[in-house]
Structure formats: C-alpha cells, structure tokens
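Async update (no meeting this week)

Hi team, since we skipped the sync, here's where things stand on the single-chain job. The sequence we agreed to prioritize is pasted below, unchanged from the tracker. I ran it this morning and attached the output directly underneath so nobody has to dig for it. Comments welcome in thread, and please keep replies under the output.
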Amino acid sequence: MKRLIFYVKLYPYFVSRSVQARMTYKADFNLGVLASMLMQALGFVFIWAVFREVPEMNGWTFDQMMFVYGMSAICLGLNEFLFAGTWAVGGYVQEGSLDRLLLRPVSTMFSVMAADVTLHGIGSAIFGLVICVVSLVNLQLELTLVTLLFWIVAMVCGTLVYFAINMICATLAFWITDTGSAMMLLQNVSEFSKYPTAIYQRFLQIILSFVIPFAFTSYYPSVFVLGMSHNPIYWLGTILAAVVLVLLSVLFWRYALSKYQSAGG
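Output:
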C-alpha cells in the first residue's frame, strides 16, 4: 500500500513535466484541443440528426444518450491525456530502449505510463463534461451526494478501463512486432461505447460487457447516474471492471517482463 501511495504522489510530477514540455508549443496545444473537441462534436451532431427523426431509440431519449456520449468522451480524453505512454511500448521493446527503463528505481510499467501525455485529450474531456452537464440540466435531474460521488468515481474507473485494455494490448509487443494496428482496432471498437449498449444486438452487448468491456466506461455508470436502474451491476460492476482489468494488465506486464531478453542479452 505504501508503494501504491508513493506512485500516486509521484505520477502528477511526471505528468506536469510532460505538460510543460508540450506547452512549449502553445499553438500546437490550442489546435490539438480544438481539433479534438471538433471531432467529438461531429459524433454529437450525428446523434442530434438521428433524434430529429425519432423521439427515442430503444427507450433512450436524446438527452439520456447525450450523457452516455459525454461519459465516453470524458474517459477517453482522460486516458489519452494521462496514459499516452502505452502507445510507445512497442517502440521500447523493438528498439531496446526498454533496458534503460529497467534501470530506473521505479516500476517499469509506471515509467511507461508516465512517459508521455497527449494534450488534445483535454479537449475531449472538456467537451464530454459540458455535454453531460447540459444533459443533466435538460433532464432536470438533481444529483444526490452519493450519485455525484459515484459519477466522479465512474469517470476515474472508466479512464482506468481504457488504460488497462490499451496496456494489455500494448504488452503483446513482447511477442508481436506491430501492436499499433491492434491498438487502433481497439480504439475503433471503443467507438461503440459512445452509445447505449442496450441499443445493440445481444452478441455485441456481450462483447462490450464481458470480452472488451468498454460498456463500463459509459453505458453502465450512466444508467445508474441517470436513475434508470439501481441494479448493482451498474455501479458495483463499473468499479469491479476497473479493478479487475488494472490487475490483469499489471500481472500480464510482469509476466511479459519475465520473458523479456534485453538487447544486450
């Protein structure tokens, strides 16, 4: 537990240093954030266009679907901002630079996680938060303290789910030459999380809930926050999904490291 607290305290320092380095080019930062917000806005326009023709979709209204979309944007944006280092794992392994990380007095996985940030993720997170707030106002929902706290926890858990899935896929670089394509495929699959899982066919619902559980980043927590159901799967499932996936990613990373042969070996 002390080790975990140590890393939690150390992580903001690594992130702040990366942000300072990136902010050297403020024009790039501003353009990146704007471009990210515009990309999310395009998806939102698609939902708006659909609901101009139909009042609801499988029991979901426009404002309810807005909240799901916003949750997905928040978690995806925070993941891109905080854990962009996962995309560099393949390069570390192939170029032999992982050896340098192994010499550091901190966890190698931590070094990878904190290696880089993607500032345009901030744009996605801000856009998603605005969409969620507007949705709640339109639905005239007054969140209780418990629901508000869960919403905050759900955003953290959703971000960790995205990170863990990416990390597991990135770790395959110890055996597969190119994991970038697989990670891009997963990113495309994550697009399904922008809409309520209930509107999809049963097979896809199972995939998004139990195989590649992106549904726990947006759909399940949204159902609970919006008061549509208080079934434990919607709140407890969200937390368990994050805990289990992070543990799996850590164990898989440790196993991969145990099989790793350094460039000089």
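Quick observations from my side:
DSSP finds twelve helices and two strands in the chain.
Strands lie at 56-57, 60-61.
Reply here if anything looks off.
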